[in-house]
């Protein structure tokens, strides 16, 4: 199946690891998670993965339309990150300095 199947497997394993990490961490130290932020970002990420899988397997979409939609999904991901203050200008500057 290739790359789309690997993306789905990574997404599913990411969900399992996030849940396992949560329950294990809560056993030793109570962590107050920002659930709205976590699930909002993860929902956009999952939407992008689902689109990539469906587009590659089932849709006969033009290359340009696929790129436009993927760029819009990336913009949505970063816009949500800025809105929820997960991504800040300082963090972006720090990334590009490295």
Which secondary structure elements does this structure contain, and how are they paired or packed?
Blueprint: H1 3-28, H2 35-57, H3 63-83, H4 89-97
Task: Label the overall shape.
Answer: globular
The counted number of beta strands is 0
Helical content (DSSP H or I, runs of 4+): over 70%
Largest sheet: none
- Strand-pairing-aware structural class: mainly alpha
Please trace the helix and strand order, writing H or E for each element. Answer: HHHH
Number of domains: 1
Output the number of helix runs.
4
> Could you tell me how far the N terminus lies from the C terminus, measured between alpha carbons in angstroms?
36 Å
Instruction: Supply Rg.
Output: 16 Å
- Percentage beta strand: under 5%
Overall description:
Helices cover 81% and strands 0% of the residues. With 98 residues, it is an all-alpha fold. The longest helix has 26 residues, at 3-28. The relative contact order is 0.10.
Q: Which features would summarize this protein structure in a list?
A:
98 residues, mainly alpha, 4 helices
């Amino acid at each position: 199946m290739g790359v789309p199947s690997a993306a789905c497997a990574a997404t599913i394993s990411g969900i399992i690891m996030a849940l396992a990490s949560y329950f294990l961490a809560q056993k030793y130290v109570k962590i107050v998670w920002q659930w709205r932020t976590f699930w909002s970002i993860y929902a956009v990420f999952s939407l992008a993965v689902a689109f990539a899988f469906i587009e590659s397997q089932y849709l006969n979409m033009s290359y340009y339309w696929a790129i436009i939609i993927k760029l819009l999904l990336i913009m949505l991901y970063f816009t949500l990150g800025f809105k929820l203050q997960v991504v800040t200008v300082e963090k972006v500057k720090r990334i590009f300095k490295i």
